[in-house]
């Protein structure tokens, strides 16, 4: 899989999860920060292994990019 295999809205959501710069310390968003359309996209990204749901600090729930996703992004940005 490459970044080109994703839809525009999927790539846009990954950019949002990555804080726009895909920094290692900013690889997710709290579920409440996403729109309904982004939540639907996030679930699709879970199915293909690019995003996972993670329980966070103080009972928060996050959509986080997986290590697999970060590798795809890194490869896509260095090609």
Would you kindly provide a brief summary of this structure?
This protein is of the alpha+beta class and 79 residues long.
Describe this structure in words.
The protein is an alpha+beta fold and about 80 residues long. It has one domain: Winged helix-like DNA-binding domain superfamily/Winged helix DNA-binding domain (Arc Repressor Mutant, subunit A). It is about 45% helix and about 15% strand. The protein has three helices and three strands; from the N terminus they run αβαββα. It has helices at about 10-15, 35-45, 65-79, and strands at about 30, 50-55, 60-65. The mean pLDDT is about 85.
Percent in strands = 15-25%
Instruction: Name the shape in a single word.
Output: globular
End-to-end span in angstroms?
A: 14 Å
CATH architecture: Orthogonal Bundle
Number of strand segments:
3
Query: What is the CATH topology classification name?
Result: Arc Repressor Mutant, subunit A
Number of helices: 3
Helix content: 40-55%
Question: What's the story with the biggest beta sheet?
Answer: 3 strands, antiparallel
Overall mean pLDDT: 87
Number of domains: 1
Low-confidence segments: none
Instruction: Give me the Rg, rounded.
Output: 12 Å
CATH homologous superfamily annotation: Winged helix-like DNA-binding domain superfamily/Winged helix DNA-binding domain
Strand order of the largest sheet: 1-3-2
CATH class: Mainly Alpha
Provide the structure class.
alpha+beta
Q: Give the helices and strands as they follow along the chain.
A: HEHEEH
């Amino acid at each position: 899989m490459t970044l080109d295999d994703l839809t525009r809205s999927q790539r846009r959501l990954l950019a949002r999860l990555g804080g726009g710069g895909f920094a290692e310390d900013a690889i997710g968003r709290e579920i409440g920060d996403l729109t309904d359309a982004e939540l639907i996209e996030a679930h699709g990204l879970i199915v293909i292994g690019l995003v996972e749901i993670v329980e966070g600090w103080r009972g928060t729930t996050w959509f986080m990019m997986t290590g697999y996703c970060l590798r795809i992004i890194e490869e896509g940005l260095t090609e």
